């Protein structure tokens, strides 16, 4: 097995990590038949011991396949590191497909992404926004080269994903300034707030999911006043009509409605999210660019 087998190794790793020939083909920018041929050629070169158990749907790695996968990952990592040493970083070119979680666009997009474009002039950026859960899936399948997610604890350590923490974000419970007795600061429990209506993001938001999970665990009901996309609009409605909402601390501090709102200290709901850059665990041609992006994002925060 020599350098000519690298595309077949890449195909095997892509199928093993995405769990699907279709998703692997998307990651590799190949057709499904071309990806299938590469997998077949790789299996032939390895020998008679099967790499996949195809008696189940979808097929899963055999124990031998998992062993081979780890070796293949090391090969691809070594090749990527060698390529990074071989040429100047300014020559990196191509389309970099990046995703960013809803709510982080204004905080993180402008300065870091502008600096990246000035430093790597041959890179074309394609940036999309989505919920962090969807961004995780898109990086895992190769639909995105990287993504900046706002990850709640249950989303950290996703399989087949390299996550680089950039910062943390406290998720606040916010209400109208005059809605509760503000003569003295006090702490609340979620049971104290169960009669209050919530303005929440639609389903798919990780912070919403964490709140609902906590309420379920405490066997408490929830009243949803409205499902409103975007914290800025939620805070606007909250300032006018009262109720409750969740918002990242940075977004609250920069909100034009801040003076009309108040943060509640809720003792049994203390949610912190991690801002992370997510990418495939095997370094690719954009590895140097992504390391540069991490440094710029850390400066921005």
Question: Would you write up a description of this structure?
Answer:
The chain has helices at 6-18, 21-28, 32-46, 63-86, 105-108, 110-119, 132-141, 206-217, 231-241, 249-253, 287-300, and strands spanning 52-53, 60-61, 94-101, 123-130, 146-151, 162-176, 187-188, 197-200, 223-227, 244-248, 261-266, 271-279. The chain has 301 residues and is an alpha/beta fold. 42% of the residues lie in helices and 24% in strands. It contains eleven helices and twelve strands. It is elongated.
What key phrases describe this protein's structure?
11 helices; D-Maltodextrin-Binding Protein, domain 2; elongated; alpha/beta; 3 domains; 301 residues; two-stranded antiparallel ribbon
Which secondary-structure class do the elements indicate?
Answer: alpha/beta
CATH superfamily of the largest domain: Periplasmic binding protein-like II
Number of helices: 11
Rg measurement, Å: 23 Å
Mean pLDDT equals 86
Element pattern in H and E? HHHEEHEHHEHEEEEHEHEHEEH
Largest sheet: 10 strands, mixed
Overall 3D form: elongated
Determine the CATH topology of the largest domain.
D-Maltodextrin-Binding Protein, domain 2
Tally of domains: 3
DSSP helix fraction: 40-55%
Report the top-level CATH class of the largest domain: Alpha Beta
What would CATH call the architecture of the largest domain?
3-Layer(aba) Sandwich
Total strand count, please?
12
């Amino acid at each position: 097995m020599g350098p000519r087998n690298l595309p077949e190794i890449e195909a095997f790793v892509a199928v093993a990590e995405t769990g699907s020939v279709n998703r692997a083909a998307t990651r590799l920018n190949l057709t499904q038949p071309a990806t299938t041929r590469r997998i077949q050629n790789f299996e032939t070169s390895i020998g008679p011991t099967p790499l996949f158990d195809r008696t189940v749907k979808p097929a899963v790695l055999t124990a031998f396949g998992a062993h081979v996968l780890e070796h293949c990952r090391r090969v691809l990592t070594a090749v990527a590191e060698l390529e990074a040493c071989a040429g100047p970083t300014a020559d990196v070119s191509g389309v970099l497909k990046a995703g960013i979680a809803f709510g982080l666009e204004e905080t993180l997009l402008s300065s870091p992404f502008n600096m990246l474009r000035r430093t790597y002039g041959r890179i074309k950026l394609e940036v999309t926004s989505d919920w962090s859960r969807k961004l995780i899936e898109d990086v895992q399948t190769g639909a995105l080269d990287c993504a900046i997610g706002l990850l709640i604890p249950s989303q950290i350590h996703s399989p087949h994903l390299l996550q680089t923490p950039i910062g943390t974000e406290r998720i606040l419970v916010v209400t109208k300034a005059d809605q509760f007795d503000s003569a003295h600061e006090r702490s609340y429990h979620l049971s104290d707030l169960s009669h209050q209506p919530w303005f929440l993001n639609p389903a798919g938001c990780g912070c919403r999911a964490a709140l609902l999970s906590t309420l379920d665990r405490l066997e408490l009901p929830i009243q949803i006043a409205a499902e409103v996309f975007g914290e800025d609009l939620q805070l606007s409605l909250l300032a006018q009509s009262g109720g409750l909402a969740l918002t990242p601390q940075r977004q609250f501090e920069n909100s034009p409605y801040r003076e009309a709102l108040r943060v509640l200290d809720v003792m049994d709901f203390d949610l912190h999210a991690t801002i992370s850059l997510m990418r495939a665990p095997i370094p690719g041609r954009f590895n140097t660019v992504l390391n540069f992006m991490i440094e710029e994002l850390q400066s921005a925060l």
